[in-house]
Amino acid sequence: MTNPATVPAPLNILFLCTHNSARSILAEGLLNHLNRKTTHPRFRGYSAGSSPRENQQPNPLALEALAQAGISVAGLRSKSWDEFAAPDAPSMDLIITVCDNAAGEVCPIWPGRPATAHWGYPDPSEGDAPEAQKRDAFRATLLAIGKRLDILMNLPPEKLQKALLQDAVRALAAK
């Protein structure tokens, strides 16, 4: 039996996208779902957008893709990254941009100087494709995110030390 005092606190990961309505929501929901299935969760997922629209909500197709995969959508909401730069916000250990627009933006100065990485995914909500095609795109994006998260979650603990974390997660962008 593991001594709870020796189990490290989960690493906080913030997934960023421009509007926080699709890819970052998928990543947050999936990571937290995968963590609930482990005895000692190693990660806690959050998501935010660099410039969510006023009254922005998660894309209904993102929520549908998560729900169809058996992932709870309770509590998922679109939020600004400013929420995570506030003094009372949880301290982030890792920030991953999941869209190319957010990757090129000037980010706030994050407390604690978290590791950063970019895992680019095409926007499944973009374009005028029929609804069925967009549903397929959301499912494909969820699967692609899931592949990287699976690798991340199975990294040995020593790779998750702050000094090595950034290199480890940046290498996953090529996977």
Structure description:
- The chain has 175 residues and is an alpha/beta fold.
- Helices cover 37% and strands 13% of the residues.
- The chain contains six helices and four strands; from the N terminus they run βαβααβαβαα.
- Strands 2-1-3-4 form a four-stranded parallel β-sheet.
- Strand 3, helix 4 (100-103) and strand 4 form a beta-alpha-beta unit.
- The longest helix is centred in the last third of the chain and has 23 residues, at 131-153.
- The protein starts with 10 loop residues before the first strand and ends with a helix.
In short:
This protein is α/β, with parallel strands linked by helices.
Structural class: alpha/beta
Fraction of helical residues: 25-40%
Tally of separate domains: 1
Specify the oligomeric state: single chain
Keywords:
4 strands, alpha/beta, globular, 175 residues, Rossmann fold, 4-stranded parallel sheet
Secondary-structure topology with pairs:
Elements lengths: L10 E7 L5 H14 L6 E7 L10 H9 L13 H4 L8 E4 L2 H4 L11 E4 L12 H23 L8 H10 L4
Parallel strand pairs: 1-2, 1-3, 3-4
Helix pairs in contact: 1-2, 1-5, 2-5
